[in-house]
Amino acid sequence: MMQVLIFHVHGICTPEQFTLIKAADELGARLWVPEIDNMDEYLDQLNIVVAYLLEAFNAVDPLRILVKIKLHLLAHIPDDIHQFGPAIRFATEIYEAFNGVFRLCSIYSNRLAPSRDISQKFASMDRAGGAVGKVLQSDPVFQRHLGWVPQAQVDPGKIKPFSACKKPEIEWKATSASSHWRENDTPSPGSLWKIGSSVITQSGDTAPLGSWVLCLDSAGRTIIGRVHKLLLGQNSLITVERFVLGSQLHPVFGWPILRRPRGPEITEEGIHIYALLSTIAAKGTVKPTLKTQEFQEREATDRESSTIQHADDDHFILNLAALHNFARVCRALPRHLTALKPLIQDCVAFHKEASLKAQATRMTKRQQAAAKKREKAEAKKREAAEAEAAAQRAENAEEEEEEDESSREAGDEDIAVVPHRTQSTCKRRMVIDSDSENSENENQEPEAIVVRQSTRQRRAPNRLDL
């Protein structure tokens, strides 16, 4: 995805984001090299592209370098490569598969000294490594089960033909190569030739028709072109559509441009293909305007799918973000077309500006975080108040239900003793009223006393009975 992302985001992202993606492409292609020809030159370019990426990150988000530790580690990659060689040789992703082994070595132990148990287990595995390696190298059964097969022998220039039913043989005079033949031993016009579908390059890649390749002419000069025709007969013949490398880089992508030759630039010489290339249209638009028929189980269906078609077939960009054969491409191209330049010339002023921007961004983020924290606290308080109010309402409703129930039960009991309770209650009220009116009407005092006496006399037998 990284190799073609820059072409997909062009025109839909900000200039700062586009620069960041391009810097990541440049760094990825230079890290993913299996061999280094000139270590000093390579490290100089690597330091430039690392600084390029960090400056691009500063332009997008100055605080990112303080958060992502990987950005800080990028500055140490040149030192590691100078000591250990190409980065892909000491990449650690493949060793993450041993995490399960470490875990099992720690689980199946007494867990009193896990480091010692793990080291002893790996030491025992290392002692058995030589014997196991001999078995894997000598036993083809183990090799087939593990998918470990010997490396295939490369046969550069070998052409794979189409089947006879798809592409029947044609005569030499009907081929496009016959009009461009300049050698003395011209094939006979009536000789039959098979049409090829792909050819093996010197690097071991398979180049089908339409592939972009690096070739060498009879004088040993590098030619960049596109595979046009493949013929297989008495010998293998390859017709390449040659393109000329421009002297200037693309103004937007900053990569070399390929164009069709004009006038005296057109030559017809023998070639030797040795590597594949990756290109994309340099002018116009690239849209899915071409409709192709879909195949299922090798049979044509009624469905159609959209494929990419270049609007301009005369100008192309050489994609230097491609990981495959990047070192070979850099060897073939002039130095000024592959050398990188720093993104920022005045680094001190840019860093001061980025620092001020980072401070403002951090202050804004802190304010936003504090406001968000306050909002959460207020929301929690509101939720707690609402929950407390709901609980209070539920408790009140429950108490009201209990009071209603108790009142109903009390009402049922009052029905059985209404005459007696009513009489005693009236007498008590009379006594209370007489006490309150004693100061105003002294003539009613004996009556109140009599009522109290009558009440005591009436209650006394009841107490004796109990």
Question: What attributes does this structure have?
Answer:
11-stranded antiparallel beta sheet; single chain; alpha+beta; 48% helix; elongated; two-stranded antiparallel ribbon
Task: Explain briefly what this protein structure is.
This protein has 466 residues and is of the alpha+beta class. It has helices at residues 5-9, 15-31, 39-60, 64-67, 69-74, 77-84, 99-107, 114-127, 129-138, 140-146, 326-332, 335-338, 347-416, 418-436, 445-465; strands at 159-161, 170-171, 192-200, 206-208, 212-217, 222-232, 236-249, 256-259, 271-277, 279-281, 286-296, 299-310, 315-318.
Describe the structure.
- The chain folds into 3 domains: 5-150, no CATH class; 159-338, no CATH class; 417-466.
- A hairpin with a 5-residue loop joins strand 3 and strand 4 (206-208).
- Helix 2 (15-31) runs antiparallel to helix 3.
- Strands 1, 2, 3, 4, 5, 6, 7, 8, 9, 10 and 13 form an 11-stranded antiparallel sheet that branches. A two-stranded antiparallel sheet has the order 11-12.
- With 466 residues, the protein is an alpha+beta fold.
- The chain is built from 15 helices and 13 strands.
